[in-house]
Amino acid sequence: MSEILNANPTIRSAADLPSRRREPTKKTKTQRPFGLLSSTIPDSAYTPDPFNPSSPSESESSDNDEEVEPIDEQEIYDLIASIQDPEHPLTLGSLSVVNLPDITLTSTLPPSSLSNPSLPAITTVTVLVTPTITHCSLATVIGLGVRVRLEQALPPRFRVDVRIKEGTHSTAEQVNRQLGDKERVAAALENGTLMGVLRKMLEGC
Q: How far are the Cα atoms of 52, 135, 150, 155, 198 from residue 59, in angstroms, in the given order?
């Protein structure tokens, strides 16, 4: 990583990026996120402030336990656009590595919904990543960063599918196989050096 692969990437102004940062909403339960990096985040980060008047009471929480907050493509984009590029001191959004039109959400009913209609639908989030150059050697790392970020932030009813956009990378098929293989992803995340890179990428999220 000492040699910069793309010394002059195209950079988008932050004002040009699509965004709809939502106001913080009341959360029904204090839960750690379900994801590949959940064990790396301290418990204190998810403990509500008891002195904060906006913290919901237990009765409010129990009333809202069954509510499912809708999440759309813009919110997914907001979650991943601020990820730091592993090569440049810029975000994936500003480099157009992630783009709003390349995010899709597909919902399907779980098999057990026939016996329990109250179960929420399973939603698959598909993100197509566009590397800044077609021979980028960090494409897999970027894809892992996007996947880990979404695994951290989204509820368990979401499934994450991160791929390299067709025609944007010379070895897209190979990278996509790596990103789609859960066992290979889990093995990669046991690499201390890679974990250090991913943590740095996610510092600004």
A: 16, 55, 30, 22, 38
